[in-house]
Structures are given as C-alpha cells and as structure tokens.
Amino acid sequence: MLAVIGLGVMALTLNWFDVATAFPLIGAEFHVGLGSLSLLISLYIVGYGLSHIPGGMLATRIGMKRTIVLGLAVQGMAGVMSGLSRSYPELALFRVVSGVGGSVFVAVGMAAWSSGSASTMSPWPSGSPGVRHSVPEQPLPSTCGSTCSERWGGTRRWSWPVYSNSWS
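Predicted structure:
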C-alpha cells in the first residue's frame, strides 16, 4: 500500500497541473481566455481544500484502506472525465470533483503513511481471487506526460494528456 500511496501522490501532482500545459488548446476549443483557464487550477484546489476534513471523517466510518481506494478512484475517474469534457463548465466541474478525490486520498494516505500502517494495508480483502498483493519491482511508466502528446498518432488535442495523466 505504501507504493500505491507514493504513486498516487505523483498522479495527484500531475493531475493538479496537467491542464496548464494544455491552456492554449483548451482555450481554443472552448473559446475562453487566460482567466477562465487559470480558474481550472483554482477549482481543483477548491475541491482539494474543501475535502480534507470530510475525508478524515469518511475514513473513521469506512476505514483507511477503503477511503484511500475511493479517493484514488474518484480522482482518476474525474480526471478521465476532464479529458473527455465537451464544454468548459463540464471541465470545470470535473476539475472540482478530481480535487475532492485527490484530497480524500491525500488526507488519509498521508495519515496512513506517517503512522506506519501503510506498509501493511491492502485495499482488497485477503484471499480475493485474481488480485495480486505486490507491486512489481520496476513498474512500467503508464504515460509519457503532457509534453509528448504528439506521439499519440500526431494528435494535438489537449484531452489526451489530461486523460492519460489521470491514470498514472
């Protein structure tokens, strides 16, 4: 679980700022200016800031493991939906939801990490069929990041780097 938390923090950081590199493409597609584009980062931070305490409260109800997995799932799915957004308001909403998921994950994940319980936690019940309980020694990178989006079939769309960074 310690590796999941570490990789999750890396994904959170990518998700936080991945839209900044796509500002010109997002602005052109949705016909918005720099102020509205900058708001996308702020909206992520708003969702992130509002959910730390509720994330801790949720962890006391359903447990740390489930809360960490839930937070990662919400952040990941909202990040994917951000990349698939068809309008600026839709993108803005998914940025807030992604911030909420990231906050829930980080608040509980950092508590688990600092308490030392992260190294023994497994997000799945013991004996789950087909579930591997170890992380490969050298995991393969899942994305190349926003800066190499043209390598994906020559696409110049902003949504692919945002979509892929959500699953880092």
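Summary: The radius of gyration is 17 Å.
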